[in-house]
């Protein structure tokens, strides 16, 4: 093949690779859990705790980020926890770094889950439910 044909094939392959990378990044940034935050680190190496990853491979970091290798353009990471946003003011969110889970518990007794009861009203943004 001529050098022009070879160059056209290389350009097409590069464009296809970049298209796939952009699609992967878009999907990564739209993971379930709409409250999750995502980050992109340009030129970051696809390596974690001494292990190297290939394009498209993912790993869970110790700070609960799900990261995906987007070599050669970098690494995309998204939080795996869903942050509660609508609970009564007599409750609070507790984060467990060991399980990457957030639970909503009672402020007065954090060993108890935050549940609707006769003593407490529960509605949107701490307002009572309509009758």
Outline the secondary-structure elements.
Blueprint (H helix, E strand, L loop, with lengths): L2 H26 L9 E5 L4 E2 L2 E2 L5 E3 L4 E5 L4 E6 L11 E6 L4 E6 L25
Antiparallel strand pairs: 1-6, 2-3, 4-5, 5-6, 7-8
Strand content: 25-35%
Estimated radius of gyration: 22 Å
Model regions low in confidence, pLDDT < 50 over at least 5 residues: 28-34, 127-131
Average pLDDT taken over every residue: 74
Q: What is the element string, with H for helices and E for strands?
A: HEEEEEEEE
Number of strands: 8
**Assembly context of the chains:** single chain
Compute the number of helices. Answer: 1
What form results from the Cα inertia axes?
elongated
Derived structural class: alpha+beta
How helix-rich are the residues, as a percent range? 10-25%
Termini gap: 78 Å
Strand order of the largest sheet: 1-6-5-4
Tags for this model:
131 residues; alpha+beta; four-stranded antiparallel β-sheet; 20% helix; 27% strand; inflammatory response; cytokine activity
Describe the structure.
- Strands 1-6-5-4 form a four-stranded antiparallel sheet, with no helix packed on it.
- The chain has 131 residues and is α+β, with helices and mostly antiparallel strands.
- Strand 7 (91-96) and strand 8 form a beta hairpin.
- It is elongated, with a radius of gyration of 22 Å.
- Helices cover 20% and strands 27% of the residues.
- The model is unreliable at 28-34 and 127-131 (pLDDT under 50).
- The longest helix is centred in the N-terminal third of the chain and has 26 residues, at 3-28.
